[in-house]
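Example 9 (inverse folding). The structure is encoded as follows.
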């Protein structure tokens, strides 16, 4: 259906001014969005064209945001062990992902923005860098990018792949775009059997089901130790709302007011910690908390540790493991509003019990498995969540039992990173002469700009 992809390409090209305006708006709160904007449209004036070096493959990993970049870090660690000579080309779509990705770079590696999904930007990106293989993390498959890679003979791997029911329905509604893109993938490494089933329904050929890369996370020992030391100094249990999304802090305030009203003694011995998902909301949340009459102590202002306050605010990036070390129990952000939930595996690896709401469709199997293992608890509302979290945090026996179960749960599911890296290495070895017939070369002709 060449006409459909051509139409999509023209629409994407015409949308460029809208993309620029959106980036400018985002940059007001997150200055990172104002950096190297032209890279998004295939312009690399500050970067000479990549020159291939024999036996040094350029491995391109695309990790759109923070969570995907952290998963990419786990995979990259194994890839470097199996392919020591690789050079990394890392692309990101968000400012938080880009900032986190900078930690992964070694001398000779390259980091640029994800190209916008119009034919000219994609072609310029692929011809400037000419990657040996492309690895897309989790869900980041774009029709234009897939077509461009087929045209330029760049094999694509969808790693740590997941697809929920809502996304599958969207892919089926746009099957004229989505199905050819999924069919173009050289290898698909699914997280779960349910993900594999949905990916096949979308048109992908699933290579393997290997589990979630995030189980292979190695908690930062220094961060954990610092958090545990601060917890010890606090002298009372700490309950965290972890990776909260927009609207959940207001729900948390309502639940806290309800808890204090119904059982003042229950809330009194607990220190509250809030760690929002998105940094551009830090100041807004401080205003919300202070408007409710709460005293706030911000992590960014700590010198020798947390200061006495009603609420500690984790307004820093890259320190989730410190916060999990500081907390006795975590309320899972994104699960109390219909947002699909955030990653709970990192909490389990740090030995932090989790209380989650009803909305965990982004990590359904991990959420259900953690509850079954005893390292997490599911509730139907944030009111109930606060009650249960306080009960766990103030009961040494319950807390110890859930902590052990969480650690065992995380340990049991390890191994996806090594197996995924082995599959990707196999794809890389077979790239010579690679031809993908799912898209015809004519779909992105030279005259499409």
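The amino acid assigned to each position is listed next.
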């Amino acid at each position: 259906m060449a006409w459909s992809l051509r139409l999509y390409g023209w629409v994407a090209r015409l949308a460029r001014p809208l993309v620029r305006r959106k980036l400018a708006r985002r940059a007001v709160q997150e200055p990172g969005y104002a950096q190297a904007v032209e890279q998004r449209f295939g312009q690399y004036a500050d970067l000479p064209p990549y020159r291939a070096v024999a036996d040094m493959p350029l491995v391109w990993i695309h990790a759109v945001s923070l969570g995907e970049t952290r998963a990419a870090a786990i995979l990259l660690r194994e890839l470097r062990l199996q392919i020591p000579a690789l050079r990394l080309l890392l692309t990101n779509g968000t400012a938080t992902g880009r900032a986190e990705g900078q930690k992964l770079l070694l001398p000779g590696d390259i980091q640029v923005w994800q190209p916008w999904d119009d034919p000219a930007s994609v072609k310029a990106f692929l011809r400037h860098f000419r990657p040996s293989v492309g690895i897309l993390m989790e869900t980041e498959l774009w029709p234009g990018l897939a077509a461009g890679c087929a045209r330029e003979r760049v094999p694509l791997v969808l790693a740590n792949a997941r697809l929920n029911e809502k996304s599958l329905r969207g892919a089926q509604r746009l099957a004229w775009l989505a199905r050819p893109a999924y069919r173009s993938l050289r290898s698909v490494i699914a997280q779960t059997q349910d993900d594999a089933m949905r990916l096949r329904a979308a048109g992908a050929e699933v290579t393997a089901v290997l589990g979630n890369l995030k189980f292979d996370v190695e908690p930062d020992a220094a961060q954990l130790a610092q958090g545990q030391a601060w917890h010890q100094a606090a002298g009372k249990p700490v309950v965290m709302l972890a990776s909260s999304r927009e609207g959940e802090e207001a729900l948390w305030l309502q639940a806290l007011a309800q808890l204090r009203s119904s059982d003042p003694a229950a809330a009194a011995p607990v220190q509250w910690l809030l760690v929002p998902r998105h940094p551009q909301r830090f100041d807004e949340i401080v205003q919300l908390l202070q408007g409710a009459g709460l005293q706030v102590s911000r992590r960014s202002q700590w010198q020798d540790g947390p200061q006495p306050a009603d609420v500690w605010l984790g307004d820093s990036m890259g320190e989730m493991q410190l916060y999990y070390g500081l907390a006795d129990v975590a309320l899972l952000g994104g699960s109390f509003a219909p947002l699909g939930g955030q990653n709970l595996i990192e909490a389990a690896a740090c030995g932090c019990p989790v209380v989650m709401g009803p909305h965990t469709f982004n990590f359904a199997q991990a959420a259900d498995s953690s509850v079954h293992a005893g390292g997490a608890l599911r509730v139907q509302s944030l009111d109930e969540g606060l009650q249960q979290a306080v009960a766990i945090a103030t009961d040494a026996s319950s807390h110890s039992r859930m902590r052990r179960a969480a650690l065992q749960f995380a340990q049991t599911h390890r191994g996806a990173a090594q197996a995924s890296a082995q599959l990707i290495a196999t794809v890389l070895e077979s790239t010579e002469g690679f031809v993908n017939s799912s898209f015809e070369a004519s779909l992105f002709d030279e005259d499409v700009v």
